[in-house]
Write a structure and sequence with these properties.
- It comes from Halalkalibacter alkalisediminis.
- This is ABC transporter ATP-binding protein.
- GO terms for molecular function: ATP binding.
- The protein is an alpha/beta fold and 257 residues long.
- The chain has a domain of 165 residues: Rossmann fold.
- 37% of the residues lie in helices and 24% in strands.
- It is built from nine helices and ten strands.
- α3 runs antiparallel to α4 and α4 runs parallel beside α5.
- The N and C termini lie far apart (37 Å).
Length: 257
């Protein structure tokens, strides 16, 4: 059974001047443990789609289910990692990590140990008593990843989490996130503008059309590329071929608008 199912999901916004359809009739199934990226031109509704899946918005029509449960509001089984880390500067790294556990009322000595163990595994065990401004951007994003993992969600939503980082740090963090999520068999959805990132990290890439966003095409990434670290995938013999296929399809979409 699919972990996540979207059935004819549409979303619109109403202002005093106009009604805008942001997403139109999105239907998609994402399997347990799958990593899917969402690509598309600016304004096509990528982040809106992620917000609907996360229960932060409600669709005007259609249904979204996680397992056998319909998503109607924020769900403890869903974790978020954003472009900004949103760490509270007045709290230590450990205090930032525990905040989600306390809000969800799952904080205990056991869950605290688990969170600090994640911090240790990601190379930041000695930073727990520091404050966010004492860490680099890449370190802060690793903390954001631990904060998400600490609540043990089954579905991870990643909204351009690497876009604010320098290229070398971005590549390292891609590998770290990919390895961590795959080893834990987490289901993940990544929103990105970066075609190479989408190919390197994903099992499938979903391309949305310009507004209103519709599923224009779904690209299956070859398994021998999808099962290796993103850095290695970028060196794969078929990587450039896959890049050109998606690039040309995005160019055709842009030319048609």
């Amino acid at each position: 059974m699919s972990t996540l199912t979207l059935s004819n999901v549409s979303m619109g916004y109403v202002t005093k001047r106009e009604t805008t359809l942001a997403l139109d009739s999105i239907s998609l199934s994402i399997e347990d443990g799958e990593f899917v990226s969402i690509l598309g031109p600016s304004g096509c509704g990528k982040t809106t789609l992620l917000s609907l899946i996360g229960g932060l918005l409600s669709p005007i029509s259609g249904q979204i289910t996680l397992g056998d449960q319909e998503i109607k509001k924020s769900n403890a089984a869903i974790g978020y990692m954003l472009q900004q880390d949103y760490l509270f500067p007045w709290r230590t790294i450990e205090d930032n990590l525990m905040l989600g556990l306390k809000i969800r009322r799952t904080y205990s000595e056991s869950t605290r140990r688990d969170a600090l163990n994640w911090l240790q595994q990601l190379g930041l065990g000695d930073k727990k008593d520091l404050y966010p401004n004492q860490l680099s951007g890449g370190m802060r994003q690793r903390v954001a990843l631990v904060r998400m993992l600490a609540t043990n969600p089954s579905l991870m939503l990643l909204d351009e989490p690497f876009s604010a980082l320098d290229y070398q740090t971005k590549l390292k963090l891609e590998d770290l996130v990919f390895h961590t999520l795959k080893s834990e068999r987490k289901t993940a959805i990544l929103v990105t503008h970066d075609i190479g990132e989408a190919i390197a990290m994903s099992d499938r890439v979903v391309l949305l059309s310009p507004r209103p966003g519709r599923i224009h095409r779904v690209f299956e990434i070859p398994k021998d590329m999808a099962n290796i670290l993103p850095f290695d995938a970028r060196q794969h013999q078929h990587f450039n071929e896959q890049f050109q296929i998606i690039w040309k399809e995005m160019e055709r979409l842009a030319a048609a608008t």
